[in-house]
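QA checklist item 7 of 12: single-chain prediction sanity check.
[x] sequence parsed
[x] length recorded as 525
[x] structure emitted
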Amino acid sequence: MNTANFPWLTTIILLPIVASLIVPIIPDKDGKTVRWFALIVGLVDFALIVCAFYTRYDFSNPDLQLFESYAWVPQLGLNWSVGADGLSMPLIILTGFITTLAILAAWPVTLKPKLFYFLILAMYGGQIAVFAVQDMLLFFLVWELELVPVYFLLSIWGGKKRQYAATKFILYTAGGSLFILLGALTMGFYGNTVTFDMQAIALKDIALNLQLLLYGGFLIAYAVKLPIIPLHTWLPDAHGEATAPVHMLLAGILLKMGGYALIRMNAQMLPDAHAYFAPVLVILGVVNIIYAALTSFAQRNLKRKIAYSSISHMGFVTIGIASFTDLGLSGAVLQMVSHGLIGASLFFLVGATYDRTHTLMLDEMGGVGKRMQKIFAMFTTCSMASLALPGMSGFVAELMIFVGFATSDAYNPTFKVIVIFLMAIGVILTPIYLLSMLREIFYGEENQELVSHQALIDAEPREVFIIACLLIPIIGIGLYPKILTQVYDSTTVKLTARLRDSVPTIAQQNQINTVSLSAPVIGVK
């Protein structure tokens, strides 16, 4: 078979979407057939992703690969244009991996199983498309496509306040999407040529004032998804009502869409504006780290505690993006992948714990580790990964961001010292609230009322398998980060060089060995 001309990405995107359309006509009453169908589709699609990665992806090439472009609506200049580089390929692999495990995690679903797996498969293709499309209008369409499945997955299979959480999610994200559409149309029509191709738009000489306006609009849209405080409040509500497989998709993939778009659209396509907004991103990242960590302390609901922990960890991503160093940007990409794995594992275990205790309130737990030893062991291991224990992926990612920002020559020393100090406080807070959470759930005396009313059975093989699949890459990346960083190093190095050229002081330093005289932004040297 000649794989050179095979439409890899188009097939990978459309396979789960087409398969979702078959789900309603599958003869099945109790959902047992349709869940196997969904799992097989997920495995086949993930196998195609891995095959495309190993046969067609070149680590040393920083540009787009697996590129495909077909005229779709030529009257509007809309093309089906997809491709993958170092920014998108790790997240495409992550999407296939997490979604396949989420399908397996949804095995006990009995309420409207056909609709559930239809939405999961449609969301699968939509999320991969977000990371692969190279046309601005098409990006907006697929960005909107994944909103619909999430809304229904929350509003039908969620908890008591599911309608409120789903409505809040759709209002926040759809409102942010308006800025994407306006920005895409503005950049597409700017200049003498009309094009929505991302690579062509990145080469346009857009005036600085317009870049700043576009950057601000995109930042609002992607701050909702990342999420960046104060546009974060939908996330704790959504996580508080979602089921385990939906948790895995929200924490493992959905948040990464915001970080990816922030790099792809804001940094890569608007580099001059990025030089002005970078200190703002750093400050917002620090606020995320500290505020969300402190808020997590106060949460007595287990899902909301982990949700705020996710917000805190994503603060490191924005700081890495704004570091103007190869190491910092590489750490931001690594943090997105790492958090996707760790967040999915923790939320799956939260769901497994709830299935047994039928409570999310920490005050009602205590001592359950005596009866659920496997869940206790898995929860502890995943929590260690979340608090950045050395030897796990979270430690490497956060260390790279720390060192990358500390060695950046784009900021004055005072600004860097303050930011690093606050980041360190966030790192200290994380183990405190995670370890206290473990203590309240698993240690101490058993809650006799809970034990007498609930059967606290231990983890079943399916649950152990899912966590093992997540822990293997978490530990593997922690021990040997190059297994992942080599996938995107060439792309991040090229992007960082372009971003550094957009900072006048750094550009001057590259030309002459003298001290820079002025700065484009507050906080930049």
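[x] summary fact logged: Confidence is low (pLDDT under 50) at residues 513-523.
[ ] second reviewer sign-off
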